[in-house]
Structure formats: C-alpha cells, structure tokens
C-alpha cells in the first residue's frame, strides 16, 4: 500500500479540498484496509485503498457540514501562541531597555553624556566633539569605556549583552 501513498494524497487533495487533514484520512484508510485484509482477502489493494479513503473523506465532509461546532483550526491556535510570544518578547525588550537605562545612569556624568549623544541620539563622533568642546579621540575613548561598562553591568545581571544573541 505504501507505493500508492503519493497518488492517494494527490487524489484526496484534488477531489476533497475541504478536507483539512489528509494525513488522518490516509492513516485511517491504511488501518481499515489492514483490518479488512486480516479477516478476508482483498483483490486489489490500490482500488480498495482509494475506495476506503474516498468514503472516509466523504464521511468527514458530511460530519463537518452537519456539525454545529465550528473548527477554529490550527491558525487560531498559532495566532494565540504568536501573540503570547510577542507579549513575552515585548516584556523582554522592556526589561532590556530598563537595564540599559540603569547601566547608562551608572556611568560617570561626562561619559554618560558622550555615550548618550553618540550611541542613543546617533550623533557622529565629530558632532559630539564639537557640541561638547572635546576632541574626536575623547569621544571615541569615552564611548568605548561606556560600552565596556555597560557590558560589565549586563554580565553582573546575568546577561551576555544587551541582546541574548550577543549583539549590542
């Protein structure tokens, strides 16, 4: 019966597109053919397999049509799971932002100011240097020291970095 499986699946998908779980129909068909073969001979396994599968698909469609219960399907379940994952991710991001704010607040004032302007506000090193009246090299050095201090802060809190994938 296994050699007939691809053509059986194709037949079920094309003839019964409303049957959502073709795998169940195929497995149930195998089971019924096997049970029948255990008690009586079957002349053509392929023909019998297709007949059983067709009848199962029709029964399933009739049952679904007459059932007052609406199948919400796996799409609804996956949406709930995705929403839960989104919520968890959102809470995680908030926690990371809170930790970043703590790490920045713990920096010495001048270093914090340079780091904030360069990394948070997105100003270039040259723009920060001009705004604060310091050298470009000072901005570079203070930013690097601030980054190391933040990384150390995260390590003390049990994090590899700001993000779990190791990026900053």
Task: Report what the structure shows.
This protein has helices spanning 5-15, 22-39, 45-66, 73-105, 109-120, 125-132, 136-156. It is an all-alpha fold. It folds into two domains: 2-66, no CATH class; 74-156, Orthogonal Bundle (Arc Repressor Mutant, subunit A). The model is unreliable at 163-168 (pLDDT under 50).
Record the SSE blueprint.
Elements: H1 5-15, H2 22-39, H3 45-66, H4 73-105, H5 109-120, H6 125-132, H7 136-156
Which features characterize this protein?
Arc Repressor Mutant, subunit A; 168 residues; mainly alpha
Describe the structure concisely:
This protein is mainly α. 74% of the residues lie in helices and 0% in strands.
Main sheet summary = none
Following the backbone from N to C, one meets helices and strands in this order, namely HHHHHHH
Characterize the overall form.
Answer: rod-shaped
State the CATH topology of the largest domain: Arc Repressor Mutant, subunit A
Classify the helix fraction into a percent range.
Answer: over 70%
What is the CATH homologous superfamily assignment of the largest domain? Answer: Winged helix-like DNA-binding domain superfamily/Winged helix DNA-binding domain
Strand content: under 5%
Oligomer: single chain
The CATH architecture of the largest domain can be given as Orthogonal Bundle
Estimated structural class: mainly alpha
């Amino acid at each position: 019966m296994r050699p007939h499986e691809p053509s059986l699946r194709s037949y079920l998908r094309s003839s019964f597109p409303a049957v959502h779980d073709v795998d169940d129909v195929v497995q149930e068909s195998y089971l019924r053919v096997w049970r029948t073969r255990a008690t009586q001979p079957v002349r053509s396994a392929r023909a019998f397999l297709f007949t059983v599968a067709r009848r199962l698909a029709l029964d399933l469609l009739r049952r679904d049509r007459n059932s007052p219960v609406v199948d919400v399907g796996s799409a609804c379940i996956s949406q709930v799971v995705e929403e839960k994952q989104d919520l968890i991710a959102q809470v995680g991001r908030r926690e990371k932002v809170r930790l970043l704010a703590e790490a920045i607040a713990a920096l010495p004032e001048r270093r914090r100011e340079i780091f904030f302007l360069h990394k948070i506000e997105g100003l270039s090193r040259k723009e920060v240097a001009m705004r604060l009246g310091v050298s470009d090299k000072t901005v570079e050095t203070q930013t690097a020291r601030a980054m190391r201090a933040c990384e150390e802060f995260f390590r003390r809190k049990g994090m590899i970095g700001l993000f779990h994938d190791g990026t900053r």
